[in-house]
Structure formats: C-alpha cells, structure tokens
Amino acid sequence: MEILLHEKSNRLRAILKDMGGCVIGYSGGVDSTLLFAVAAEVLGNRALAVTATSKTYPERELNEARELAERIGGRHRVIVSEELDIPEFRENPRDRCYFCKKELFGKLRGIADEEGLEYVLDGTNLDDAADHRPGRIAADELKVRSPLEEAGFTKQDIRDLSREMGLSTWDKPAFACLSSRFPYGTAITPERVSQVGLAEESLRTLGFRTLRVRYHGSVARIELGQDEFAQATGALRDQVVWLVKEAGFTYVALDLQGYRTGAMNEETP
Questions:
Q1: Cβ-based neighbour number of residue 113 at 10 Å
Q2: Domain 2-171, classified CATH 3.30.300.130, yes or no
Q3: pLDDT tens per residue across span 219-269
Q4: For the domain 179-265, what is the CATH code?
Q5: Quick one: which of 75, 119, 218, 254 is 20 to 30 A from 139 by CA?
C-alpha cells in the first residue's frame, strides 16, 4: 500500500514537472491543498494558486486558504467570483455547477495567459466520478487538467499523502460551497446564502466539524457526522435549536442519515 502511494506521488510530480507551469484552482480543501503543495515543491514560482471568493464561500474558508498558502510558501492570489450574477446559476438547475465552473475556469484561464503559464488545474480525484458533477463539462471545455486523477489518486490516497507531508488538511472534513445546500429549482439568493452560512458558522462554534445545513424554506435540515449525533440531540440540543432559529429558520430538523456527499442529488429530477 505504502509503495503504491509513493508510486502515485512520483507520478504526480512527474506530471507537474512535465507541465512546466500552472494555475491551480485552490480552495484550501484537502485535494487542492495537496496539489498546490506538491506543485509549489516541483515548480516553485511557476505554480500559482488562485482562490475565488464570493458570498457562497465562507470567510473562514478564505482565511484558512490564505494561512495554508503561507505555510506552503507558494504563490497565491485571491480573486472575486461572481456566480450569483449569473441568472442560470441563481435559478439553481441540476447543472448549476456548470455555470459556476465555467465562470471560474474562464477567469483562471485568463490569469494563466497573463502569467505565461500553459495549464489550469483542479483537484479532481478518482472518487469524484461517482458523484453528479456537471462542473466537469466546463473543465473539459476549457481544457482544465486534473493531475491527481491522472496520477491515480483516490480521496484516501490524498489524505494519506497529505498526512505524510505534514499538511494540516489531511483530516479536514469535505466542504462544498454554500450553493450546494439548496434543492435544485430553489432560487439561490444572497439573503438565503447568508442565512445558511450564519446557521453553519454558529453551529461550528459548538464544535461540530462534519456539518451541512440544507435549506428547505422555513426548515433547516442538519446533516452531521455519525459521531456528532449524540451531542446534537443531548447536551447541545437547546443551543442547536436556538442558533439555527436565530439564523432565520422556523423549524430545525436533524437528518438521521447524517452527512453524505451529494445529498441534494438524491431527489428524483
């Protein structure tokens, strides 16, 4: 197992070295942080990480991305993403992520051209193929490459190598932008995004790590890690209810299935 991981690591480094330079879509999550760390090691200043911030991207995540970039020591830039200005995105169809990624990758492609860097990269890995990801169509259209996938990395491989390299993100829970909290067809507005974001940030102050607050009108459906149920229904129950209602919801529901990737894709289209 260890030998196989090192083989993948060497393959990743070879892929990046062959590129000669790149712009990386960098969120500060597990995948893009590993990709950025390895690219900075292999390519030095020829690797540029770019973080796109918007109302759908919590300030806490932006601050963490900045701190991680400083520790890694590579080049890092923050830009503003404007997906909420895109009507097709706000309407929240099943291919919503296509419009977001098209806007983002278009901006990254422009930066790459300005910098004289040939490639734009994202942190897609082998396990991502199992989920509904229309953003991959935008990536293909704009010729975005996914070196982790190309090198054969699974999510667990990424966590294992991150731990070996001393990256603090090795056990960071998965995170997706706040627009993923809304059922398809429910309009995404700045006010609703702020409501969901406030509810999640408030619950994080109680110590919850694996967390989603899904928007269902007046109802907040909370997804937690299985090991966090007891806290939410026990000693912290009243605080959970109060904080979520303070964020603007009338009803507070705990999803007994807990957190799982792509929960909003479970509904019949």
A1: 12
A2: no
A3: 999 999 999 999 999 999 999 999 999 999 999 999 999 998 766 677 755
A4: 3.30.300
A5: 75
